[in-house]
Design a protein that fits this description.
5-stranded mixed β-sheet, 4 helices
Length: 147
């Protein structure tokens, strides 16, 4: 997983998890997220630490070998299972599924995974893979609010 530390001694630092829900077919979006956060973190002041993880559903029709290569290369994919995507529906349509929506499933099970595997986090930012985070502004805000 991508873990960035602004300094070698993290005393008093904030530990932030960036939790991104993503479909297996969206490798390009994940790569953009990785590059954007890596570049943006260089501008963060203080002793803060950031980890970026992508929470994924079931493989379904995914190229499992490609997924394994991505995990080997980046180490930031957490497969929590559940549907990889939802059925297509018209925009702004109301519909009811007989199961949790794909994003909802990943958020719920990903939150549980974080609670069990990253119990010392100060904050978690939940993002979709097409949303971006300006880390210097976020840390500035968090520092003003206090942890």
């Amino acid at each position: 997983a991508l873990l960035w530390a602004a300094a070698l001694e993290p005393a008093g630092a904030l530990l932030l998890e960036v939790m991104v829900t993503s479909k297996w077919s969206q490798r390009t979006r994940r790569d953009i997220q990785r590059n954007a956060l890596s570049s943006c973190f260089k501008l963060v002041l203080g002793d803060h630490m950031v980890e970026l993880l992508f929470f994924m559903g079931d493989y379904n029709n995914t190229d499992v070998a490609a997924a394994a290569r991505e995990q080997l290369e980046h180490g930031d994919l957490v497969q929590v299972g559940g549907p990889d995507s939802d059925p297509g529906v018209p925009r702004d349509a109301t519909y009811v599924l007989d199961r949790p929506a794909a994003r909802t499933y990943r958020l719920a099970h990903g939150s549980k995974w974080l609670a069990e595997n990253r119990p010392d986090l100060d904050y978690v930012m939940y993002l979709d893979d097409d949303s971006y985070l300006h880390l210097p502004r976020l840390f500035g805000h968090l520092e003003q609010q206090g942890s």
